[in-house]
Structures are given as C-alpha cells and as structure tokens.
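Amino Acid Chain and Its Fold in Token Form
===========================================
Scope: a single protein chain, as residues and as a discrete description of its fold.
Amino acid sequence: labelled as such and written in the usual single-letter residue code.
Position: the record begins directly beneath this header, with no further notes in between.
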Amino acid sequence: ERVVCINSGVGGENTAEGLARFEPAVARREPDLVIIEFGLNDIRYEPEKTIAPDAFAENLRIIHREVTALGARALFTTPNVIINAYHEYSKGTDYYDRWGGCNGAIIEYAGIVREVTAELGAPLCDVYRAFADKALELEFAGACPDRSDFRCLGTFINISDGVHPT
C-alpha cells in the first residue's frame, strides 16, 4: 500500500496558529492519520505567542475533535526536551525562572499533553520521556554528571539552539 506523508507543520507556530489554518493545511488533504505535536512554541514568552496551560489543553482537545471529525486518527506527541544551557532564546528573559528554566515549562506542557490524551483515549508518543530516559541512560553510563541539565543529549538535540532534534 502506498503511504504519503505530508508535513503541514510550520516552524514557530503555537496551537492557536495551528488551529487557525487547520482547514487548508490538514482537512483539505483528507488524512487517515494526523500526528500532532505542539508545546514548544506555546510556552514562548512573547505575549502574541504564549498560550496559557488551560487554553493549551483546550486547543489540543479541539484539534483532536477536528481530526476525528474528518474520520482520521490522531496521534499526539509530547514536545522534546530543551537543553537550557544551549537555549540562547530564553537567556535574555526571566520569564522561565518560575519553572527553573525553559525546560521546566516544557515539563509542564508535556504533562498537559499526557493528561489530555489520557482523557481523550488518544494514542501518545512520549518524545519528552524518550529523551529524558536517554539522558538517564547516559548518566548511568558515566557519559554525563547530571542528566537533568540534558547537555548529555547534545548529539540528539542541536547544541546551537538547544531545541531542535538532530
């Protein structure tokens, strides 16, 4: 059977922006499966980008409803870890201090994705957990002194920005 994969993601978009273009970017393509990954841009500190936790959860529910209304299956993923030490974008602000750094905010939003998918009975690919487990494995192997700062994942997460998987 032929499989066609279309990446409709737009770098820098949060859940509200993704929803705003759902019809042309997703619905018109009549997909069988939609992989949904948001969170990294929903925590951005710019007022026009930040999506509060409750709104983030509701946006995920709406996306799920829209996808399933098409007759498609929805597969959610958690956002990946952020390596705070390499994340230049967040260093000029104290916005993330309440979480102990930008990655702390990602932990909260990954938790929201887990909660919403459990509530909806939707499948989840826990990307965050996979990266955190890899960091733990590397710490136990002696490859890094402390898995919690995630610098040991520098071969998996781009060290020039601390965000994007390689």
Notes: Residues 102-120 form the longest helix (19 residues). The longest strand covers residues 33-37. The two ends are 29 Å apart (CA to CA).
